[in-house]
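User: Quick sanity check before I run a bigger batch. Here is a single chain. Can you write out its predicted 3D structure?
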Amino acid sequence: MKTHNQHTGEFIALMAFLMSLVALAIDAILPAFHAVGASYDIVDENRLQLLVGVLFLGMAIGQLFYGPLSDSIGRKPATYIGLILFIVGALVSAFAPTYEIVLWGRFLQGFGVAGPRTISIALVRDQYSGREMARIMSFVISIFIIMPAIAPALGAGILVFGTWHAIFFLFALLAFVALVWLILRQPETHPQEKRTSFSLMTILQGARFTLGNRRSCGYMIVGGLAFSCLVAYLNTAKLLYADIFQIDELFPLYFGMLALFVGAASIVNGKMVVKYGMRSMMKFALIAMILSSGSFFFYLYFTSGHPPFVLFMVSMASIFFFMGILFGNANAMAMEPVGHIAGVASSIIGAGTTFVSMSLGALVGQFYDQTLLPLIGGYFALALSAYVIMSMIERKDIAKEVTV
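Assistant: Done. Predicted structure follows.
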Protein backbone atom coordinates (compact mmCIF):
# COMPACT_ATOMS: atom_id res chain seq x y z
CA MET A 1 0.00 0.00 0.00
CA LYS A 2 3.02 2.29 0.04
CA THR A 3 3.00 4.95 -2.63
CA HIS A 4 5.93 5.71 -4.89
CA ASN A 5 6.58 9.08 -3.28
CA GLN A 6 7.08 7.80 0.27
CA HIS A 7 9.90 5.45 1.18
CA THR A 8 9.85 3.09 4.18
CA GLY A 9 12.54 5.13 5.92
CA GLU A 10 10.43 8.28 5.73
CA PHE A 11 7.38 6.39 7.00
CA ILE A 12 9.33 5.09 10.01
CA ALA A 13 10.65 8.59 10.74
CA LEU A 14 7.14 10.10 10.57
CA MET A 15 5.62 7.43 12.85
CA ALA A 16 8.45 7.87 15.37
CA PHE A 17 7.95 11.66 15.24
CA LEU A 18 4.22 11.31 15.90
CA MET A 19 4.76 8.93 18.84
CA SER A 20 7.59 11.08 20.22
CA LEU A 21 5.23 14.00 20.80
CA VAL A 22 3.98 12.13 23.88
CA ALA A 23 7.43 11.81 25.46
CA LEU A 24 8.24 15.38 24.47
CA ALA A 25 5.07 16.74 26.08
CA ILE A 26 5.83 14.87 29.32
CA ASP A 27 9.59 15.19 29.70
CA ALA A 28 10.51 18.58 28.20
CA ILE A 29 8.46 20.42 30.84
CA LEU A 30 10.16 18.69 33.82
CA PRO A 31 13.11 21.14 34.10
CA ALA A 32 10.59 24.03 34.19
CA PHE A 33 8.69 22.85 37.30
CA HIS A 34 10.20 25.45 39.61
CA ALA A 35 9.98 28.21 36.99
CA VAL A 36 6.26 27.54 36.47
CA GLY A 37 5.73 27.42 40.23
CA ALA A 38 7.51 30.75 40.68
CA SER A 39 5.35 32.40 37.97
CA TYR A 40 2.12 31.53 39.78
CA ASP A 41 3.39 31.62 43.39
CA ILE A 42 2.83 27.88 43.94
CA VAL A 43 3.73 27.21 47.58
CA ASP A 44 3.01 23.46 47.71
CA GLU A 45 5.57 21.95 45.33
CA ASN A 46 3.59 18.72 45.07
CA ARG A 47 0.94 20.70 43.11
CA LEU A 48 3.50 21.02 40.32
CA GLN A 49 3.17 17.27 39.74
CA LEU A 50 -0.21 18.05 38.16
CA LEU A 51 1.69 19.34 35.10
CA VAL A 52 2.31 15.67 34.34
CA GLY A 53 -0.75 14.09 35.96
CA VAL A 54 -3.32 16.21 34.13
CA LEU A 55 -1.68 15.45 30.78
CA PHE A 56 -1.96 11.73 31.53
CA LEU A 57 -5.64 12.19 32.39
CA GLY A 58 -6.32 13.85 29.03
CA MET A 59 -4.36 11.12 27.25
CA ALA A 60 -6.30 8.36 29.02
CA ILE A 61 -9.66 9.79 28.00
CA GLY A 62 -8.48 10.61 24.48
CA GLN A 63 -7.29 7.07 23.80
CA LEU A 64 -10.87 5.82 24.15
CA PHE A 65 -12.00 7.82 21.12
CA TYR A 66 -9.24 7.99 18.52
CA GLY A 67 -9.19 4.29 17.61
CA PRO A 68 -12.93 4.09 16.79
CA LEU A 69 -12.83 7.61 15.29
CA SER A 70 -10.03 6.67 12.88
CA ASP A 71 -11.99 3.54 11.91
CA SER A 72 -14.88 5.86 10.98
CA ILE A 73 -13.37 8.93 9.29
CA GLY A 74 -9.93 7.63 8.29
CA ARG A 75 -6.49 7.63 9.94
CA LYS A 76 -5.33 10.99 8.63
CA PRO A 77 -8.37 13.17 9.53
CA ALA A 78 -8.49 11.67 13.06
CA THR A 79 -4.78 12.41 13.50
CA TYR A 80 -5.30 15.98 12.23
CA ILE A 81 -7.87 16.52 14.99
CA GLY A 82 -5.46 15.26 17.64
CA LEU A 83 -2.55 17.39 16.45
CA ILE A 84 -4.68 20.55 16.23
CA LEU A 85 -6.02 20.01 19.76
CA PHE A 86 -2.45 19.49 20.98
CA ILE A 87 -1.37 22.77 19.37
CA VAL A 88 -4.32 24.65 20.89
CA GLY A 89 -3.58 23.15 24.32
CA ALA A 90 0.09 24.17 24.11
CA LEU A 91 -0.88 27.77 23.28
CA VAL A 92 -3.47 27.84 26.10
CA SER A 93 -0.75 26.82 28.59
CA ALA A 94 1.74 29.31 27.15
CA PHE A 95 -0.62 32.29 27.52
CA ALA A 96 -2.40 31.12 30.70
CA PRO A 97 -3.11 33.89 33.23
CA THR A 98 -3.42 31.37 36.11
CA TYR A 99 -1.94 28.00 37.01
CA GLU A 100 -5.38 26.41 36.68
CA ILE A 101 -5.54 27.52 33.03
CA VAL A 102 -2.07 26.04 32.46
CA LEU A 103 -3.49 22.73 33.71
CA TRP A 104 -6.52 22.97 31.40
CA GLY A 105 -4.08 23.48 28.55
CA ARG A 106 -2.11 20.42 29.67
CA PHE A 107 -5.32 18.36 29.74
CA LEU A 108 -6.06 19.44 26.17
CA GLN A 109 -2.50 18.58 25.15
CA GLY A 110 -2.96 15.10 26.60
CA PHE A 111 -6.31 14.61 24.90
CA GLY A 112 -4.85 15.80 21.61
CA VAL A 113 -1.59 13.83 21.67
CA ALA A 114 -3.54 10.62 22.34
CA GLY A 115 -4.49 10.87 18.64
CA PRO A 116 -1.06 10.53 17.00
CA ARG A 117 -0.01 8.15 19.79
CA THR A 118 -2.90 5.74 19.10
CA ILE A 119 -3.29 6.13 15.35
CA SER A 120 0.41 5.83 14.46
CA ILE A 121 0.21 2.17 15.53
CA ALA A 122 -2.90 1.71 13.35
CA LEU A 123 -1.05 3.27 10.40
CA VAL A 124 1.70 0.67 10.78
CA ARG A 125 -0.80 -2.16 11.21
CA ASP A 126 -2.73 -1.10 8.08
CA GLN A 127 0.34 -1.47 5.87
CA TYR A 128 2.36 -4.27 7.45
CA SER A 129 1.68 -7.56 9.18
CA GLY A 130 3.52 -10.37 10.92
CA ARG A 131 7.30 -10.18 11.10
CA GLU A 132 7.44 -7.18 8.80
CA MET A 133 5.17 -5.23 11.15
CA ALA A 134 7.34 -6.26 14.11
CA ARG A 135 10.44 -5.11 12.19
CA ILE A 136 8.92 -1.72 11.35
CA MET A 137 7.65 -1.21 14.93
CA SER A 138 11.07 -2.08 16.35
CA PHE A 139 12.63 0.64 14.17
CA VAL A 140 9.92 3.14 15.19
CA ILE A 141 10.32 2.38 18.89
CA SER A 142 14.14 2.44 18.72
CA ILE A 143 13.89 6.03 17.49
CA PHE A 144 11.05 6.85 19.87
CA ILE A 145 12.96 5.77 23.02
CA ILE A 146 15.63 8.39 22.37
CA MET A 147 13.12 11.20 23.09
CA PRO A 148 12.83 10.69 26.89
CA ALA A 149 16.61 10.94 27.06
CA ILE A 150 16.89 14.22 25.15
CA ALA A 151 13.58 16.00 25.96
CA PRO A 152 14.62 17.28 29.43
CA ALA A 153 17.85 18.64 27.96
CA LEU A 154 15.78 20.35 25.27
CA GLY A 155 13.55 21.93 27.92
CA ALA A 156 16.54 22.98 30.01
CA GLY A 157 18.25 24.46 26.96
CA ILE A 158 15.20 26.58 26.20
CA LEU A 159 15.18 27.86 29.80
CA VAL A 160 18.76 29.09 29.34
CA PHE A 161 17.70 31.40 26.51
CA GLY A 162 14.04 32.10 27.35
CA THR A 163 11.16 31.44 29.73
CA TRP A 164 9.15 28.28 30.32
CA HIS A 165 6.48 29.63 27.95
CA ALA A 166 8.85 28.93 25.05
CA ILE A 167 8.68 25.20 25.80
CA PHE A 168 4.98 25.25 24.97
CA PHE A 169 5.68 27.25 21.80
CA LEU A 170 8.11 24.47 20.82
CA PHE A 171 5.35 21.88 21.39
CA ALA A 172 3.04 23.81 19.08
CA LEU A 173 5.75 24.27 16.42
CA LEU A 174 6.75 20.59 16.32
CA ALA A 175 3.13 19.44 16.20
CA PHE A 176 2.54 21.83 13.29
CA VAL A 177 5.56 20.35 11.48
CA ALA A 178 4.14 16.85 12.08
CA LEU A 179 0.74 18.00 10.78
CA VAL A 180 2.18 19.43 7.54
CA TRP A 181 4.39 16.35 7.05
CA LEU A 182 1.40 14.06 7.52
CA ILE A 183 -0.79 16.05 5.12
CA LEU A 184 1.80 16.24 2.34
CA ARG A 185 3.57 12.89 2.52
CA GLN A 186 1.46 10.19 4.21
CA PRO A 187 -1.16 8.34 2.14
CA GLU A 188 -4.47 7.42 3.78
CA THR A 189 -4.26 3.75 4.81
CA HIS A 190 -7.89 3.11 5.81
CA PRO A 191 -10.00 3.32 2.63
CA GLN A 192 -13.65 4.36 2.53
CA GLU A 193 -14.96 0.83 1.95
CA LYS A 194 -13.39 -0.43 5.20
CA ARG A 195 -14.74 2.33 7.42
CA THR A 196 -17.32 1.76 10.13
CA SER A 197 -19.70 4.22 11.73
CA PHE A 198 -18.49 5.88 14.92
CA SER A 199 -20.76 5.17 17.86
CA LEU A 200 -20.58 5.19 21.62
CA MET A 201 -22.16 1.73 21.57
CA THR A 202 -19.12 0.34 19.71
CA ILE A 203 -16.83 1.65 22.45
CA LEU A 204 -19.10 0.35 25.24
CA GLN A 205 -19.42 -3.09 23.67
CA GLY A 206 -15.66 -3.28 23.16
CA ALA A 207 -15.09 -2.16 26.75
CA ARG A 208 -17.53 -4.75 28.10
CA PHE A 209 -15.86 -7.58 26.18
CA THR A 210 -12.28 -6.46 26.92
CA LEU A 211 -12.82 -5.73 30.61
CA GLY A 212 -14.90 -8.89 30.95
CA ASN A 213 -12.02 -11.04 29.72
CA ARG A 214 -9.95 -12.08 32.74
CA ARG A 215 -6.63 -12.12 30.93
CA SER A 216 -7.14 -8.86 29.03
CA CYS A 217 -8.32 -6.98 32.09
CA GLY A 218 -5.73 -8.61 34.37
CA TYR A 219 -2.74 -7.85 32.17
CA MET A 220 -4.07 -4.35 31.53
CA ILE A 221 -3.92 -3.78 35.31
CA VAL A 222 -0.46 -5.38 35.51
CA GLY A 223 0.72 -3.03 32.76
CA GLY A 224 -0.86 -0.09 34.58
CA LEU A 225 0.91 -1.01 37.83
CA ALA A 226 4.25 -1.20 36.02
CA PHE A 227 3.68 2.13 34.28
CA SER A 228 2.63 3.67 37.64
CA CYS A 229 6.26 3.38 38.72
CA LEU A 230 7.36 5.52 35.79
CA VAL A 231 4.56 8.07 36.34
CA ALA A 232 5.50 8.42 40.02
CA TYR A 233 9.10 9.09 38.98
CA LEU A 234 8.09 11.61 36.31
CA ASN A 235 5.95 13.44 38.86
CA THR A 236 8.72 13.74 41.45
CA ALA A 237 12.00 13.58 39.48
CA LYS A 238 12.73 17.29 39.23
CA LEU A 239 11.86 17.81 42.90
CA LEU A 240 13.86 14.89 44.31
CA TYR A 241 17.01 15.61 42.30
CA ALA A 242 16.99 19.18 43.64
CA ASP A 243 15.90 18.43 47.23
CA ILE A 244 17.87 15.28 47.98
CA PHE A 245 20.95 15.58 45.76
CA GLN A 246 21.07 19.36 45.10
CA ILE A 247 21.22 18.66 41.35
CA ASP A 248 19.67 21.25 39.07
CA GLU A 249 21.65 22.04 35.92
CA LEU A 250 22.70 18.40 35.39
CA PHE A 251 19.18 17.05 35.97
CA PRO A 252 18.53 16.46 32.21
CA LEU A 253 21.75 14.43 31.93
CA TYR A 254 20.95 12.04 34.78
CA PHE A 255 17.28 11.84 33.78
CA GLY A 256 18.32 10.90 30.24
CA MET A 257 20.76 8.26 31.48
CA LEU A 258 18.02 6.45 33.40
CA ALA A 259 15.56 6.79 30.50
CA LEU A 260 18.01 4.90 28.29
CA PHE A 261 17.77 1.86 30.57
CA VAL A 262 14.05 1.63 29.79
CA GLY A 263 14.91 1.76 26.09
CA ALA A 264 17.69 -0.82 26.49
CA ALA A 265 15.19 -3.16 28.17
CA SER A 266 12.90 -2.91 25.13
CA ILE A 267 15.76 -3.96 22.84
CA VAL A 268 16.84 -6.85 25.11
CA ASN A 269 13.23 -8.00 25.48
CA GLY A 270 12.77 -7.96 21.70
CA LYS A 271 15.64 -10.41 21.34
CA MET A 272 14.86 -12.68 24.31
CA VAL A 273 11.05 -12.88 24.24
CA VAL A 274 11.09 -15.13 21.16
CA LYS A 275 13.11 -17.72 23.08
CA TYR A 276 11.60 -17.48 26.56
CA GLY A 277 8.04 -16.20 25.99
CA MET A 278 6.22 -13.18 27.38
CA ARG A 279 5.06 -14.72 30.66
CA SER A 280 8.52 -15.92 31.63
CA MET A 281 10.03 -12.51 30.83
CA MET A 282 7.34 -10.71 32.84
CA LYS A 283 7.69 -13.04 35.83
CA PHE A 284 11.45 -12.61 35.85
CA ALA A 285 11.15 -8.81 35.59
CA LEU A 286 8.57 -8.57 38.39
CA ILE A 287 10.58 -10.75 40.78
CA ALA A 288 13.71 -8.72 39.99
CA MET A 289 11.79 -5.46 40.59
CA ILE A 290 10.45 -6.72 43.92
CA LEU A 291 13.93 -7.76 45.08
CA SER A 292 15.75 -4.64 43.86
CA SER A 293 13.18 -2.13 45.16
CA GLY A 294 12.66 -4.05 48.41
CA SER A 295 16.37 -4.22 49.24
CA PHE A 296 16.84 -0.55 48.31
CA PHE A 297 13.88 0.44 50.51
CA PHE A 298 15.36 -1.58 53.40
CA TYR A 299 18.62 0.37 53.02
CA LEU A 300 16.78 3.71 52.77
CA TYR A 301 14.77 3.00 55.93
CA PHE A 302 17.98 2.98 57.97
CA THR A 303 19.53 5.99 56.22
CA SER A 304 16.57 8.40 56.48
CA GLY A 305 15.81 8.07 52.78
CA HIS A 306 18.97 9.88 51.62
CA PRO A 307 21.38 7.48 49.88
CA PRO A 308 24.64 8.32 48.12
CA PHE A 309 23.90 9.53 44.60
CA VAL A 310 25.84 6.70 42.94
CA LEU A 311 23.78 4.09 44.81
CA PHE A 312 20.58 5.90 43.80
CA MET A 313 21.56 5.85 40.12
CA VAL A 314 22.60 2.17 40.16
CA SER A 315 19.43 1.10 41.98
CA MET A 316 17.13 3.16 39.75
CA ALA A 317 18.88 1.92 36.61
CA SER A 318 18.21 -1.71 37.58
CA ILE A 319 14.58 -0.97 38.53
CA PHE A 320 14.02 0.94 35.28
CA PHE A 321 15.53 -1.87 33.22
CA PHE A 322 13.15 -4.47 34.67
CA MET A 323 10.28 -2.00 34.39
CA GLY A 324 11.03 -1.59 30.68
CA ILE A 325 10.68 -5.35 30.11
CA LEU A 326 7.15 -5.24 31.51
CA PHE A 327 5.67 -2.49 29.31
CA GLY A 328 5.47 -4.12 25.88
CA ASN A 329 4.84 -7.64 27.20
CA ALA A 330 1.91 -6.63 29.41
CA ASN A 331 0.23 -4.79 26.53
CA ALA A 332 0.75 -7.74 24.15
CA MET A 333 -0.62 -10.20 26.73
CA ALA A 334 -3.67 -7.99 27.29
CA MET A 335 -4.31 -7.77 23.53
CA GLU A 336 -3.84 -11.50 22.82
CA PRO A 337 -7.41 -12.67 23.62
CA VAL A 338 -9.15 -9.74 21.85
CA GLY A 339 -7.53 -9.73 18.41
CA HIS A 340 -10.91 -9.83 16.66
CA ILE A 341 -11.74 -6.34 18.03
CA ALA A 342 -8.16 -5.07 17.97
CA GLY A 343 -8.95 -1.42 17.20
CA VAL A 344 -11.45 -0.80 19.98
CA ALA A 345 -9.67 -3.16 22.39
CA SER A 346 -6.39 -1.28 21.86
CA SER A 347 -8.13 1.96 22.80
CA ILE A 348 -9.73 0.40 25.90
CA ILE A 349 -6.52 -1.28 27.08
CA GLY A 350 -4.46 1.86 26.38
CA ALA A 351 -6.93 4.05 28.28
CA GLY A 352 -7.25 1.57 31.15
CA THR A 353 -3.49 1.24 31.52
CA THR A 354 -3.15 5.02 31.55
CA PHE A 355 -5.96 5.48 34.10
CA VAL A 356 -4.37 2.96 36.47
CA SER A 357 -0.88 4.39 36.08
CA MET A 358 -2.04 8.01 36.33
CA SER A 359 -4.06 7.37 39.51
CA LEU A 360 -1.52 5.24 41.38
CA GLY A 361 1.51 7.13 40.09
CA ALA A 362 -0.03 10.42 41.23
CA LEU A 363 -0.90 8.86 44.61
CA VAL A 364 2.69 7.73 45.19
CA GLY A 365 3.92 11.13 44.05
CA GLN A 366 1.76 12.97 46.56
CA PHE A 367 3.49 11.13 49.42
CA TYR A 368 6.80 12.74 48.40
CA ASP A 369 8.42 14.13 51.56
CA GLN A 370 11.89 15.14 50.34
CA THR A 371 13.14 11.59 50.86
CA LEU A 372 13.19 8.53 48.57
CA LEU A 373 11.18 6.35 50.96
CA PRO A 374 7.70 7.00 49.44
CA LEU A 375 8.91 6.48 45.85
CA ILE A 376 10.87 3.25 46.43
CA GLY A 377 8.28 1.92 48.88
CA GLY A 378 5.68 2.60 46.20
CA TYR A 379 7.77 0.68 43.65
CA PHE A 380 7.92 -2.33 45.96
CA ALA A 381 4.16 -2.27 46.62
CA LEU A 382 3.28 -1.82 42.93
CA ALA A 383 5.62 -4.60 41.73
CA LEU A 384 4.37 -6.98 44.44
CA SER A 385 0.74 -6.21 43.53
CA ALA A 386 1.47 -6.82 39.85
CA TYR A 387 3.10 -10.16 40.66
CA VAL A 388 0.12 -11.26 42.79
CA ILE A 389 -2.35 -10.35 40.03
CA MET A 390 -0.28 -12.12 37.38
CA SER A 391 -0.06 -15.22 39.58
CA MET A 392 -3.85 -15.20 40.00
CA ILE A 393 -4.33 -15.00 36.21
CA GLU A 394 -1.88 -17.85 35.67
CA ARG A 395 -3.44 -20.15 38.24
CA LYS A 396 -6.82 -19.89 36.52
CA ASP A 397 -5.40 -20.05 33.03
CA ILE A 398 -2.41 -22.37 33.25
CA ALA A 399 -3.79 -24.66 30.58
CA LYS A 400 -3.74 -21.87 28.00
CA GLU A 401 -0.03 -21.13 28.12
CA VAL A 402 0.91 -18.47 25.56
CA THR A 403 4.28 -18.68 23.84
CA VAL A 404 5.53 -16.10 21.42
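The longest helix spans residues 214-245.

User: Great, the batch can go ahead then.
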